[in-house]
């Protein structure tokens, strides 16, 4: 057995040990915060998957505080879940208000929901003023001058904000393609 195979075997044992030692604790921690056992179970599993798929994840068995590390990942996943559900709820409320003749098909609804989640992810990654400028421009149709007045910045700053938002959109689009 070579050195690489030995390291892989050790890493597998370390991952298994970390999972066995902390999975029940993490699931209970999530359940106390969420009040739903199935969501807690799903997020506990997703936490371990995320931990071991992240390139920057610690690969050493001696994490100083594994529970703090797991809780940080789980908290982020929980916030993402709640945000995604909020976007979906807003979408469902919008659908309920549409007359039947304008209601999108089930396939269109799915595509729109995915697009909304993508936009939400994009917006969460932007600084607050950049996000606000983007929404004022793209959703409300305000001019750069109007946005500058609303945000109490210069038109040039609004241009920079919108450029930053568009760059983020492009990066997200490229990441989804690749």
Give a verbal description of the structure.
The chain is mainly α and 178 residues long. The protein folds into two domains: 3-85; 100-177, Orthogonal Bundle (Arc Repressor Mutant, subunit A). The chain is 80% helix and 0% strand. It is built from seven helices and no strands. It has helices at residues 3-34, 37-53, 66-97, 106-124, 128-138, 144-151, 155-177. The mean pLDDT is 82.
Index terms:
single chain; 178 residues; mainly alpha; Arc Repressor Mutant, subunit A; 2 domains; extended
Q: How would you summarize the topology of this molecule?
A:
Layout: H1 3-34, H2 37-53, H3 66-97, H4 106-124, H5 128-138, H6 144-151, H7 155-177
First and last CA, distance: 35 Å
Q: Would you tell me the structural class of the helices and strands? A: mainly alpha
Q: Which value, in Å, is the CA radius of gyration?
A: 22 Å
Assembly type = single chain
The SSE order reads HHHHHHH
- Mean of residue pLDDT values: 82
Estimate percent helicity: over 70%
Largest beta-sheet details = none
Shape descriptor: extended
Which stretches are low in confidence, meaning pLDDT under 50 for 5 or more residues running?
none
Q: How many helix segments?
A: 7
- Tally of DSSP β-strands: 0
Tally of individual domains: 2
What share of residues are in beta strands? under 5%
Gist?
The protein has 178 residues and is mostly helical. Helices cover 80% and strands 0% of the residues. The chain has helices at 3-34, 37-53, 66-97, 106-124, 128-138, 144-151, 155-177.
């Amino acid at each position: 057995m070579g050195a690489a195979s030995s390291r892989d075997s050790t890493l597998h044992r370390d991952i298994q040990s970390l999972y066995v030692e902390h999975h029940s604790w993490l699931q209970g921690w999530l359940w106390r915060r969420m009040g739903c056992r199935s969501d807690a179970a799903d997020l506990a599993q997703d936490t371990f998957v995320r931990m071991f798929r992240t390139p920057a994840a610690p690969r050493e068995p001696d994490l100083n505080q594994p529970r703090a590390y797991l809780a940080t990942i789980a908290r982020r996943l929980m916030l993402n879940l709640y945000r995604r559900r909020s976007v979906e709820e807003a979408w469902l409320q919008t659908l309920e208000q549409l007359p039947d003749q304008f209601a999108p098909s089930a396939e269109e609804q799915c595509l729109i929901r995915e697009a909304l989640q993508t936009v939400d992810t994009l917006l969460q990654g932007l600084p607050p003023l950049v996000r606000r400028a983007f929404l004022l421009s793209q959703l409300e149709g305000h001019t750069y001058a109007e946005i500058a007045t609303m945000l109490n910045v210069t038109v040039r700053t609004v241009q920079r904000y919108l450029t930053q938002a568009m760059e983020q959109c492009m990066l997200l689009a490229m990441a989804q393609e690749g």
